[in-house]
Amino acid sequence: MTLTEKDNQQKKPNNLNEVEDLTNLSPEDRERKLFMQDLNRFMFENAKPLTKIPIMGYKELDLFQLFKEVMAYGGFNEVVKNVGTWSKIWKRLGNFDPSITDSSFRLKKNYERYLLDYEYNLNPESRRQGSEIDRIIKRTKAPESKSEEKKSDKKKQRKRVNFSPYKEIVREKNGQPRLPIILGGGELIIENLGSIIPRAPYVTEKHIWPVGFTSSRYFSSMKDPEKRVKYTSQIVDSGDRPQFIVSPADDPQNPIISHSPSSAWKTVLKRVIGKGAPEETRKNISVSGALRFGLAHPLFLILFENSRGLCSFPRLLLIRILLLLLLLLLLDLLLDLLLHFLLFLLLLLPALLFHLLPLRPEDLLLCNEREKLLLN
What we know:
Elements: H1 3-16, H2 27-45, E1 55-56, E2 59-60, H3 63-72, H4 76-81, H5 85-92, H6 103-114, H7 116-122, H8 124-140, H9 146-158, E3 181-183, E4 188-192, E5 214-220, E6 228-237, E7 242-248, E8 256-258, H10 261-273, H11 279-283, H12 289-293, H13 298-305, H14 313-356, H15 361-375
Antiparallel strand pairs: 1-2, 3-4, 4-5, 5-6, 6-7, 7-8
């Protein structure tokens, strides 16, 4: 056995099999710890162990925060397409140092080296989009010479393929996706896409809450935080607004019901942390309910475009068009009234001036003569 193999065997338990007590950590620290453990496991399994964290701004680069910021913009491909986004992300990190002039370039390279494969593993759709972007870039490049083509072919042969090719979502004959849909290597399972009710609060400017939507994911048990159990998240119609239900597999008789997805999952986190945690930690818990339900997943809108739920959007658009036409009609009526009022004032103005302005003696004589003529 070589020295490197011995080192890898020694590192693997420390990075992967370490069981830590996470109940005393804040939700963000807990999420960061779980993320780094999962990233270490992924890098180790792909023969690229994370033995060293890159340094930027005289500090270790916060890979967890970097990954969250990039995913908030829609992933690596969206950040690359929008110029200036790397600079915005850099300013939001704790490593920010205005003296670093090549921060965008270095941040992109570090993400490609340490996090890009991890993102592609969680979201195969991003990997397919990235390959399409690379294909477009290659088309726009000038043709290479034969020697350069040979070199590039050799590099491609040496390059190790870490992931299986992207498998498209299986669809039925009518184009609808076949359920259940497993995303992120089993991290999220969409069991039902539901249907949209085209009125508030089911449809808002920020969110879409499809009634009947059902998803599931694994998370720490509320009874025993050391165990991971299946949580089923569901959206139902309560009559005047959507209702969000989170049911743990180890206690299905006591689901968590709320009128907000964040509130439902916040209750789960509070129970996982337990009453022994500091009160300040329990109060400062923050969680994205849309993310936990799966409604913020990059593939969700793509899946919903071909689902029956969006067939109600034309109706919603028609209602908005009718309201806009009604508003224009009211404005037209108001303008007509205003124009008629102004015309009336213009017609009334000479009479008002005649009565308000003082008359000259000549005008009085002329008026008297006219009166005499009328009397005769």
